[in-house]
Amino acid sequence: MAMEMRQQLKMSQQLVMTPQLQQAIKLLQLTRLELQDLVRQELEENPLLEETAETEDISEPDVLETAELEVDPAENSTEFHEVETGEETLRDWDSYLDGYNYSSGEQYSGDDDRPSFENLLTRQGTLIDHLLWQLHMGQYSEMDVRVGEVIIGNIDESGYLRASLPEIAAASNSSEDDVMDVLECIQEFDPPGVAARDLRECLLIQARFMGMKGSVVEGILLNHISDLEKRNYKQIARALKVDINQVLMASKIIGGFDPRPGSSFNSDEVHYISPDIFVHKVGDDYVVMLNEEGLPNLKVSTQYTEIRGTGSIDNHAEEYISGKVRSAQWLIKSIQQRQRTIYKVAKSIIRFQREYFDRGIEYLRPLVLRDIAEDIGMHESTISRVTTNKYMQTPQGLYELKYFFNSGLSTSEGEFLASESVKNRIKEIIEKEDPKKPLSDQKIAELLSGQTVNIARRTVTKYREMLKFGSSSERKRHF
Question: Which of 34, 71, 274, 344 is most buried, judging by how many CB atoms fall within 10 Å of its CB?
Answer without folding.
Answer: 344
